[in-house]
Amino acid sequence: MRRPGTRNEQFIQRIPSDVIDRIRGTKLLIPVGDRIVTKKIGPTAQDIRLSLSTSDPKVAKERHAQVSAALAKHYAAARQGPRRLTPKETVALAGIAYRIWVDAFDDDPRPSRSLGPGD
Fold first, then answer.
1. Which residues pair with 47 in a beta bridge?
2. In angstroms, what CA-CA distances link 113 with 104, 107, 116?
3. 66 phi and psi, to 5 degrees?
4. What is the pLDDT along the chain (119 residues), one digit of tens a residue?
5. Nearest-CA neighbor of 75 among 32, 12, 16?
6. Every domain of the chain and the residues it spans
7. What is the pTM of this model?
8. C-alpha to C-alpha distance for 44 and 73, rounded to whole angstroms
């Protein structure tokens, strides 16, 4: 679908009635091409609307499928609700956090300024 006043295609999808109350007031991170769009679901929201940031029909079709799949995952998570992580998942997340920390501080883990005498 195209919005008046732009050449870019727009994604519009109704929020399923069984999850709408669970996701109202939350922010969804939705991949659109090579970027992530943050979409806040307001108190009266009935659908998700966002630009696919392209006027090329082929690219728009690919991005539409990408956004639709991401929203399906969000809806499935909302239906399932919070769950306990398995020990394996906990270790995997700890590993990801560790690698991010190492990448950020690996070159020089010391503070950037002096703390005073006897650092």
1. 14
2. 17, 15, 9
3. -65, -45
4. 666 777 889 999 999 999 999 999 999 999 999 999 999 999 999 999 999 999 999 999 999 999 999 999 999 999 999 889 999 999 999 999 999 988 888 776 665 555 556 55
5. 16
6. 1-106
7. 0.70
8. 22
